[in-house]
UniProtKB/TrEMBL annotation:
The keyword S-adenosyl-L-methionine does not apply. This is ER lumen protein-retaining receptor. PROSITE patterns: ER_LUMEN_RECEPTOR_1 (PS00951), ER_LUMEN_RECEPTOR_2 (PS00952). Belongs to the ERD2 family. The lineage of its organism: Eukaryota, Viridiplantae, Streptophyta, Embryophyta, Tracheophyta. Keywords: Endoplasmic reticulum, ER-Golgi transport, Membrane, Protein transport, Receptor, Signal, Transmembrane, Transmembrane helix, Transport. One of its GO terms (molecular function) is ER retention sequence binding. GO terms for biological process: protein retention in ER lumen; protein transport; vesicle-mediated transport. Residues 1-31 form the signal peptide. The chain crosses the membrane at residues 55-78, 98-115, 121-140, 152-170, 182-202. It comes from Nyssa sinensis. GO terms for cellular component: endoplasmic reticulum membrane.
């Protein structure tokens, strides 16, 4: 464990807590893409297949359980909670997210570190996570009016991935033979997708103005 990995994990956890805070306290999911949340649920379900078979540490197991449980509970709240689901903007959240799943799966079958079920699913989860934010970004561009909690949630997600890239760079120089090109490239793609959002987020922060993305 290094400082970049820990900071990345805590930032990722903070993003989940911000979203749950919005849903539980305000009883609203306005501005949140159900499509993105469903993709994240698939990401964690396929990445953590080893949760009950390969024990690494208590910290590792707890974090996996948190991200699994939170991702599926968020999907449930948006779909089924009698109050929260009323604020879901189905008419704007129309990105055909399942069209992202098949290409990522095919890519994982072709490019993986070892051709085993777990390794293919691990690669698939990385590829899918890289593009899972797309429905959310499209929704924000369509609605334009972004509340503070939603903006913080997306910012923290992007920051988590950027910190993980620093973690991989650090491990490359401190651990012998630590080379995972699949992880690096998918993480870089994911971070680049946030670049436009980061620009407008910092502009709104600098000017003390409400965050808005161009249509």
């Amino acid at each position: 464990m290094n400082i970049f990995r820990l900071a990345g994990d805590m930032t990722h956890l903070a993003s989940v807590l911000v979203l749950l805070l919005k849903i539980h306290t305000i009883k609203s999911c306005a501005g949140i893409s159900l499509k993105t949340q469903e993709l994240y649920a698939i990401v964690f379900a396929t990445r953590y297949l080893d949760i009950f078979t390969d024990y690494i540490s208590l910290y590792n197991t707890v974090m996996k359980l948190i991200f699994l449980g939170s991702s599926f509970s968020i999907v449930w709240y948006i779909r089924h909670h009698k109050i929260v689901r009323r604020s879901y903007d189905k008419d704007q959240d129309t990105f055909r997210h399942f069209f992202l799943v098949l290409p990522c799966l095919l890519l994982a079958l072709v490019i993986n570190e070892r051709f085993t079920f777990k390794e293919v699913m691990w690669a698939f989860s990385l590829y899918l996570e890289a593009v899972a934010i797309l429905p959310q970004l499209v929704l924000l561009q369509r609605t334009r009016n972004i509340d503070n909690l939603t903006g913080q949630y997306v910012f923290l997600l992007g920051a988590y991935r950027a910190l993980y890239i620093l973690n991989w760079v650090y491990r490359h120089f401190t651990e012998p033979r630590y080379v995972h090109w699949i992880t690096w490239i998918s993480g870089l793609v994911q971070t680049l997708l946030y670049a436009d959002f980061f620009y407008y987020y910092f502009q709104s922060w600098k000017n003390n103005a409400k965050l808005q993305l161009p249509a």
